[in-house]
């Protein structure tokens, strides 16, 4: 077969002075490539939208309606009036009434409530006598941002709570001072040192970021470099590939975690009130969970860039909705539900619990279980998604 | 070629090798009905690959259509065809990397549809593109493969392979820094490390210099003489001639198969070689004439071929009187045969 002779001038002779022409050529090529890469496109749309929605609707740096437990040892008109005043500030939302000091402490330690209000016995009688009784407001101050505004509102309660109550001694004036006082007790972080809150949080943030990226690249790298074809032709099963790829990074994550905890203790004086082995064990679980999630992304993404973009899309809500950057209790319910689905949310409760509150496994078992479930779900999806063929 | 086109059925090959059936495996698998009557199995030669009606689609596109083939144990089977003809797809279906949409078959007696795991254990697949780890050293790559296949002593196996491959001095070199020929040598070494019974080589010598190619082929023959079956895809005609038997595939269909001599003989092509004059103009003129099916330039000469000898002779008759041209009747080359097959098959498709 003979071919027609090649005619070099069919597309017109190249013209001179083609600076804009060449820029244009490059621009067209980039545009075409971009339009073929759906995930990049999706990231460009979704990341700004996600940020906008989360910052606009979900995040509140002066959170209201914070969950509060009450312990009332004196049921009276005065206590009810004072509780109403608490609710009226909109900072406190009474969700639970406990019967004993022990339950009171547990509710705060487990993170179920942010505040506890305790009225001592004979509160009203003392009030009528003009003894200026004190009620206790205990705050979980591991996150000073979350509790700060509410504590600041306490003065207003003291001033106005009993304005309409009759039969009480004359209202406070310059000499006698207020009728009662509120003793605010910021537990776990009395000086409201922000490092104490941030270091345990950073442990989770740093581990999430690095672990996700490590494994998110692992499968796509094999695919991009062409080594996947050889690997698949060899007698190895998907679950074996996955475990072989995840396990080395568990060790790396563990070292990373040790460095952060060590530095946090040495440089910022962050205490570890609870058990260090428990912290190490649950940190390892958290590391494995993130590696599994990253690996799942890796089985979905077409190339390394997509894998990184997916990891980033996952990372963003982790920062914003986990309670790291902004108070968890301040978020609307839907945002809290999303937050509950993120491993970092649970890990933050674990690290703050163990390091600052001295929590034990019994207190944290719900969060530990959530991490384990997330890990197994991610692994299951990854193994199911992993294509053993090139179909 | 006896039957004009789609699927070659006459299993004319397999006489090229006189491999004794001593190492024969008994598990022939597949449907033995048709096979038993053919005779070749009568001499006790075991079958390594036996597939029937393999079809693979990617979306709407049929990449492999109704492909049947059989490869005997210890045979070097050449797999030829133009780019995109379905060679790689076929090889991937054989080793379980792709699932056929239709068809059945066995590879080493294992069902290609259901026993991919067993096949992978006994098949070495050398991919077209270098697919070992470029950021691992030569030795580390070999040890990885050894461990993955569960060899008793991967280190010793890797060391032995290094010596065998002549890569001793390069054990610590990163695989990515090897030249093309050495990469190919390493890839083959990694394939045969777990001592597979079947080698599937996908264009193993693309981009490799002639010396390395020759070394490569002598190694392939060595392995075959030891009982290994080798299916090798290639574009090179000289390599095709080194195979015991070849199959030619184009547009997803197997067009012919058998030993090279038979393929040429059965092609039914009449060929002339013409030298001298303005070959380029001559080629243009000849190719438009009735009876001339193919004109291909070879240096200063042209191969002119036609399926019908009488018509071809009539077509070139006016030119044979031209004193500037020297005509000579010739045997078609394997390339002539393949290009003709391809053109015919393209005609069938369009």
From TrEMBL, chain A:
| Transmembrane residue ranges | 39-59, 198-219, 246-270, 276-298, 310-329, 368-386
Q: Which Pfam families match?
A: ABC2_membrane_3 (PF12698)
UniProt-listed PANTHER family = MEMBRANE COMPONENT OF ABC TRANSPORTER YHHJ-RELATED (PTHR30294), MULTIDRUG ABC TRANSPORTER PERMEASE YBHS-RELATED (PTHR30294:SF29)
Q: What does the entry list under GO cellular component?
A: plasma membrane
User: What is the species of this protein?
Assistant: Chelatococcus asaccharovorans
What is the protein name for this chain? ABC-2 type transport system permease protein
PROSITE patterns in the record:
ABC_TM2 (PS51012)
Q: Where in the cell is it found?
A: Cell membrane
Q: How does it sit in the membrane?
A: Multi-pass membrane protein
Q: Which domain of life is it from?
A: Bacteria
MF terms in GO:
ABC-type transporter activity
Give the family this protein belongs to, as stated in its UniProt record.
Belongs to the ABC-2 integral membrane protein family.
- ABC transmembrane type-2 domain boundaries: 160-389
Which InterPro entries does the record cross-reference, listed alphabetically? ABC-2_transporter_component, ABC2_TM, ABC2_TM_bact-type
Q: Which UniProt keywords apply?
A: Cell membrane, Membrane, Transmembrane, Transmembrane helix, Transport
Do the record's keywords include Transmembrane helix?
yes
From TrEMBL, chain B:
What InterPro entries does its record include? AAA+_ATPase, ABC_transporter-like_ATP-bd, ABC_transporter-like_CS, P-loop_NTPase
SUPFAM superfamilies, alphabetically?
P-loop containing nucleoside triphosphate hydrolases (SSF52540)
Q: Which source organism?
A: Chelatococcus asaccharovorans
Its taxonomic path starts at: Bacteria, Pseudomonadati, Pseudomonadota, Alphaproteobacteria, Hyphomicrobiales
A GO molecular function assigned to this protein is:
ATP hydrolysis activity
Return the protein name: ABC-2 type transport system ATP-binding protein
The residues forming a coiled coil are none
UniProt-listed CDD domains: ABC_DR_subfamily_A
Q: What keywords are assigned to this protein?
A: ATP-binding, Nucleotide-binding
Compositional bias annotation for Polar residues: 1-23
Any Pfam family the entry gives: ABC_tran
Signal sequence extent: none
- Lineage top rank: taxon: Bacteria
> Does the record's keyword annotation contain Protease?
no
List each copy of the ABC transporter domain by range: 49-276
């Amino acid at each position: 077969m003979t071919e027609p002779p090649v005619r070099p001038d069919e597309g017109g002779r190249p013209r001179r002075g083609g600076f804009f022409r060449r820029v244009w050529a490059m621009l067209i090529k980039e545009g075409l490539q971009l339009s073929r890469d759906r995930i990049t496109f999706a990231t460009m749309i979704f990341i700004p939208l996600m940020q906008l929605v989360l910052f606009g609707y979900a995040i509140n740096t002066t959170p209201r309606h914070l969950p509060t437990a009450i312990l009332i040892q004196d049921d009276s008109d005065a206590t009810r009036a004072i509780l109403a005043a608490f609710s009226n500030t909109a900072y406190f939302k009474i969700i639970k009434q406990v019967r004993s000091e022990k339950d009171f402490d547990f509710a705060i330690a487990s993170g179920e409530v942010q505040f506890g209000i305790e009225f001592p016995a004979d509160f009203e009688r003392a009030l009528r006598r003009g003894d200026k009784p004190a009620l206790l407001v205990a705050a979980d101050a591991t996150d000073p941002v979350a509790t700060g505004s509410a504590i600041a509102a306490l003065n207003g309660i003291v001033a106005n709570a009993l304005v309409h109550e009759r039969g009480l001694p004359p209202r406070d004036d310059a000499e006698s001072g207020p009728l009662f006082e509120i003793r605010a007790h910021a537990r776990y972080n009395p000086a409201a040192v922000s490092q104490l809150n941030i270091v345990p949080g950073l442990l989770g943030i740093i581990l999430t970021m690095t672990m996700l990226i490590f494994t998110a690249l692992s499968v796509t790298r094999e695919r991009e470099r062409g080594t996947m074809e050889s690997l698949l032709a060899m007698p190895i099963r998907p679950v074996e590939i996955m475990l072989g790829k995840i396990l080395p990074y568990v060790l790396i994550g563990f070292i990373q975690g040790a460095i952060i905890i060590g530095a946090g203790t040495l440089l910022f004086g962050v205490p570890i009130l609870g058990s260090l082995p428990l912290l190490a064990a649950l940190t390892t679980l958290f590391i494995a969970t993130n590696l599994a999630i990253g690996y799942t992304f890796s089985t979905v993404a077409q190339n390394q860039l997509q894998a990184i973009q997916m990891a980033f899309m996952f990372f963003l809500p982790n920062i914003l909705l986990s309670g790291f950057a902004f108070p968890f209790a301040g978020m609307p319910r839907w945002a809290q539900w999303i937050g509950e689905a993120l491993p970092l949310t649970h890990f933050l409760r674990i690290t703050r619990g163990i390091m600052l509150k001295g929590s034990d496994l019994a207190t944290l078992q719900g969060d530990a279980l959530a991490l384990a479930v997330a890990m197994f779900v991610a692994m299951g999806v990854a193994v199911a998604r992993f294509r053993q063929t090139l179909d | 070629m006896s039957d004009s086109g789609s699927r070659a059925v006459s299993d004319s090959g397999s006489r090229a090798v006189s491999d004794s059936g001593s190492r024969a495996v008994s598990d022939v698998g597949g449907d033995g009905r048709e096979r038993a009557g053919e005779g070749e199995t009568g001499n006790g030669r075991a079958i390594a690959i036996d597939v029937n009606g393999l079809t693979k689609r990617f979306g709407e596109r049929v990449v492999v259509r109704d492909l049947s083939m059989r490869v005997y144990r210890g045979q070097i089977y050449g797999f030829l065809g133009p780019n995109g003809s379905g060679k790689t797809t076929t090889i991937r279906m054989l080793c379980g990397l792709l699932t056929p949409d239709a068809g059945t078959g066995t590879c080493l007696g294992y069902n290609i549809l259901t026993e991919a795991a067993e096949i992978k254990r006994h098949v070495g697949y050398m991919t077209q593109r270098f697919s070992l780890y470029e950021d691992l050293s030569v030795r580390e790559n070999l040890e990885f493969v050894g461990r993955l296949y569960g060899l008793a002593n991967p280190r010793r196996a890797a060391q032995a392979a290094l010596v065998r491959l002549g890569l001793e001095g390069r054990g610590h070199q990163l695989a990515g820094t090897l030249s093309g020929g050495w990469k190919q040598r390493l890839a083959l070494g990694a394939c045969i490390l777990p001592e597979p019974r079947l080698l599937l080589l996908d264009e193993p010598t693309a981009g490799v210099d002639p010396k390395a190619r020759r070394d490569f082929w002598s190694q392939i023959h060595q392995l075959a003489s030891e009982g290994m079956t080798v299916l090798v895809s290639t574009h090179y005609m000289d390599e095709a001639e080194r195979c015991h038997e070849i199959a030619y595939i184009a547009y997803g269909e197997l067009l012919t198969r058998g030993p090279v001599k038979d393929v040429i003989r059965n092609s039914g092509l009449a060929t002339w070689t013409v030298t001298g004059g303005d070959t380029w103009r001559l080629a243009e003129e000849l190719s438009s004439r009735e009876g001339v099916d193919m004109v291909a330039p070879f240096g200063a000469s042209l191969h002119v071929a036609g399926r019908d000898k009488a018509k071809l002779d009539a077509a070139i008759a006016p030119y044979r009187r031209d004193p500037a041209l020297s005509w000579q009747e010739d045997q078609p080359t394997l390339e002539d045969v393949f290009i003709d097959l391809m053109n015919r098959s393209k005609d069938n498709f369009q």
